[in-house]
Design a protein that fits this description.
Two copies of one chain form a homodimer. The first copy, chain A, is α/β, with parallel strands linked by helices. The first copy, chain A, has a single domain, classed as Rossmann fold (3-Layer(aba) Sandwich), CATH 3.40.50. The first copy, chain A, contains five helices and eleven strands. In chain A, strands 6-7-5-4-8-9-10-11 form an eight-stranded mixed β-sheet, sandwiched between helices. In chain A, helix 2 crosses helix 3. Chains A and B meet through strand 3, helix 2, helix 3 and strand 5 of A and strand 3, helix 2, helix 3 and strand 5 of B.
């Protein structure tokens, strides 16, 4: 997605440890006009998949998922909650996620009330790096018996293993920008996509 | 807001300890068409206030704030992050928030890059009960030197002290539904608003 790549080049900051800081427009301050274009692009990719529900994970996936849902005729969005207590109710699907950025481990939970075998689920998230969050969400979809349509990612770090690992399982992963390298001088290279 | 009150009556669940469970449409599964109407109603209330930025707090405020921003000509949304480490950067405003639902205490942080004295800030959140989250966000706006236009709340528990406490400080708080009582039989009463 050209608009997104331009935004990353303009406002993203490459930091030590393969960290790409995009909190200017994606995951702290949020550029809502850009989110609308992102939502339209996810619809271009998944609009013919009869998606009934969008699943994301708190916190930075939520805004993107909500705006994306507007392009999908306002289907419901469910966000997985990070929880140490699993106390939303006794009635939850749960999985464990390791954060690339923070290193910590979180249980994530989704109420059984909001995913069921009739659902066709599109997972939306802001980042894909090692794939732990995405695998956790995939596990929750599987537990629910719903059909996983695929995953729409805003920025994938193509030089980390998550994308390849998950695509090799047969899951359709569409990333609007894939970064193939980040360099010490602060530059980065995008993968060319069809 | 009549649509919201009807939704609360239809899908909200009154639980022990003055908890109103609205995770069917507001803070776990999210009804995006309703969010659009909520955003329009906040614009009806604050549309003439020259708002330049919306401030909310993770996680359940984010979706509402992003959709609301669309009614405000796509102004940026900033969400305060709950943090125990304050490690977003050295360059943050910070405050402390006590959760009504979970009891725990969180530091919240906002990068100094995303609020400044030129901003006119509308705070958006899903709930107002004891007012701790709102006071934390107000403190962050004050630290930044920005102008606080007011706070737009989806559901206020009018029988808890937050709303009165904050209005008595001269802050404009607009709640789209104010619940004046919740009863053991599961019923609830809304405050009539102009």
């Amino acid at each position: 997605m050209e608009l997104l790549e331009k935004k990353i080049l303009k406002d993203g900051v490459v930091k030590a440890g393969n960290v790409l800081k995009v909190d200017n427009f994606l995951n702290h301050q949020m550029d809502i006009a850009l989110f609308s274009e992102i939502g339209k692009d996810f619809y271009r990719l998944f609009g013919d998949c009869n998606v009934t529900k969008i699943l994301t994970i708190e916190a930075s996936g939520i805004g993107i998922a909500c705006v994306t849902a507007q392009s999908f005729n306002n289907i419901p969005v469910v966000f997985a909650k990070k929880s140490k207590s699993k106390n939303i109710s006794d009635n939850v699907y749960t999985s464990t996620v390791v954060s690339f950025t923070h290193g910590g481990e979180n249980d994530i939970v989704v109420s059984r009330d909001y995913l069921n075998p009739g659902d066709r689920v599109l997972i939306i998230d802001d980042f894909l790096a090692n794939g732990s969050a995405l695998e956790g969400l995939m596990s929750i979809v599987e537990q629910s018996g719903a059909t996983l349509v695929g995953a729409g990612i805003v920025i994938e770090k193509g030089f980390q293993p998550g994308g390849e690992k998950i695509r090799s399982k047969g899951v359709r992963v569409e990333s609007l920008a894939i970064i193939d390298s980040m360099n010490d001088d602060g530059s980065l290279t995008f993968r060319k996509q069809g």
